[in-house]
Amino acid sequence: MKAETIPLGERIIAAETSLDRLFAERRVTRALLDAAISTIGTTQGELRAAHLRYHLSMIEVLSTAQIAHYATLRGYGESRK
Fold first, then answer.
1. How confident is the model at residue 78 (pLDDT cuts 50, 70, 90)?
2. Quick check: 36 and 15 in contact, CB under 8 A?
3. How far apart (Å, rounded) are the C-alpha atoms in residues 49 and 80?
4. Where does residue 36 fall: left (phi above 0), alpha (psi -120 to 50 degrees), or beta otherwise?
5. Kind and range of the H or E element at 25?
6. Signed CA dihedral, 51, 56, 60, 63: sign only
7. Contact at 8 Å (CB) between 15 and 43?
8. How far apart, in whole angstroms, are the C-alpha atoms of residue 11 and residue 70?
9. pLDDT tens for each residue of 5-14
10. Spatial separation of the C-alpha atoms in residues 19 and 35, rounded to whole Å
């Protein structure tokens, strides 16, 4: 998971830094803002999808008892309110 998600996180940080720089240097325009936000949003979606794919893949390799324990560790057990 790290091999896939770390580069995505780094891309988000770089895109956010670029966006901040546009404002700091007073070079932001509506078109640049829209493009930057689109890039950030798309990359955030890619990161979330990658993260959730790995959780989904856990179900394929764990036993029923292990899945229950995994869910509890993640905070999805019956005691969660």
1. low
2. yes
3. 24
4. alpha
5. none
6. positive
7. yes
8. 29
9. 999 999 999 9
10. 10
